[in-house]
Design a protein that fits this description.
Distance between the termini: 13 Å
Structural class: mainly alpha
CATH topology of the largest domain: MetI-like fold
Oligomer: single chain
Number of domains: 2
Number of helices: 14
CATH superfamily of the largest domain: MetI-like
Shape: globular
Length: 358
């Protein structure tokens, strides 16, 4: 098993390198970089899109020209200084190789627009995103597995029919739309103001007692967690049901029942261990789907200061060190969770031997 884990860890390197290559190449063709962002702000407080499309920032001045839209009228020395500061005075290949060398040492540089290193930003925002993802995944598993087992046992019954309908509806509703519905109903949108709309803690959190801090934390995280759990909950429930149905029809289950074992003993003592293999295999997909797919929109809607919101704001500002840093962290977490899934496979069923695979 150790050799297999080592091979998987080594595969992380080319995978992350591929992610960086693709995103770095895409950035070279995206209009409106950080220099254009600064020019747009200097030319009357506009935005980067106005500078790219040649909006009100394009002013004809006789002093010099520039390759940047909206930069006419700014001293050429100033533009050159910006290029040196951001490293754009070097060829793209050199910039990329420098970035890879720095990333190999977990040196992500410093944000273009904030006086803080990318590592410090990621460390500051990461607990919020992980907390949200873990709670959402935990809730999805705690509800989905017992419900999926019950649906498998009651397959074809009215209980199975109406719960399947509810699950399909839940799966069809996008997470952001469900989040908006929760805000409208329970966060003071139009009806009740039961839960807070913004942040992960209250303004007076530091003055609260230990139990008060815990209660305040769960009060704030309830709606975003429910909104993130909805899609993973539906998928995991159906996956558990189908997995149990496949196992229940096998010969060893009939043998166990013939020996006089109780239905609970058959289900949770024999079927559960085999049926959970595919559910455990789906853990990375559920966690990563929640962590990546939903964190951006949910964090923006509920004003949660996590990695998703940080990446969104960095993309809007063209803060490339933050963009690449968050992509690198997201990719690394996803790959490590995949390895963790394989370890859980072996923990559940020791008969599985990944090293025996050719």
């Amino acid at each position: 098993m150790g050799a297999y884990i080592l091979r998987r860890l080594l595969l992380v390197i080319p995978t992350l390198l591929g992610v960086l290559i693709i995103n770095f190449a895409l950035v070279q063709f995206v209009p409106g970089g950080p220099i254009e962002q600064i020019i747009a702000e200097l030319e009357g407080g506009g935005n980067v899109l106005e500078s790219v499309t040649g909006g009100s920032g394009d002013v004809e001045i006789e002093t010099g020209t520039s390759d940047y839209a909206g930069a006419r009228g700014l001293p050429p020395d100033f533009i050159e200084e910006l290029e040196r500061e951001f490293g754009f005075d070097k060829p793209p290949i050199e910039r990329f190789l420098n970035m890879v060398w720095n990333y190999s040492r977990f040196d992500f540089g410093e944000s273009y627009f904030r006086s803080i290193s990318v590592v410090d930003l990621v460390i500051e925002k990461l607990p919020v995103s992980i907390s949200l993802g873990l709670w959402s995944t935990l809730i999805a598993y705690l509800i989905s597995i017992p419900l999926g087992v019950r649906k498998a046992v009651k397959d074809g019954s009215p209980f199975d029919t109406w719960t399947s309908g509810a699950i399909i509806v839940g799966y069809a509703i996008p997470g952001f739309l469900f989040a908006i519905l929760l805000i409208v109903l329970f966060a003071g949108g139009s009806y009740y103001r039961i839960f807070p709309l913004r942040g992960l803690t209250s303004d007076d959190w530091e003055t609260l007692s230990l139990m008060g801090k815990i209660a305040d934390y769960f009060w704030h995280i309830t709606l975003p967690t429910i909104a993130l759990s909805i899609s993973g909950f539906a998928t995991l429930t159906l996956l558990t049901k189908n997995s149990f149905l496949d196992e229940i029809k096998k010969q060893y289950v009939m043998t166990a029942r013939a020996k006089g074992l109780t239905e609970r003993r058959v289900l949770y003592g024999h079927v559960f261990r085999n049926a959970m293999l595919i559910v455990i295999a789906g853990f990375p997909a559920v966690f990563i789907g929640i962590f990546f797919g939903g964190s951006l929109i949910i964090e923006v809607l509920f004003s949660l200061d996590g990695l998703g919101r940080l990446g969104f704001e960095a993309a809007v500002q063209r803060d490339y060190p933050v963009v690449f840093g968050t992509l690198f962290v997201f990719g690394l977490i996803g790959l490590l969770v995949g390895i963790l899934s394989d370890l859980m496979y072996v923990l559940v069923d020791p008969r599985i031997d990944f090293e025996a695979r050719t």
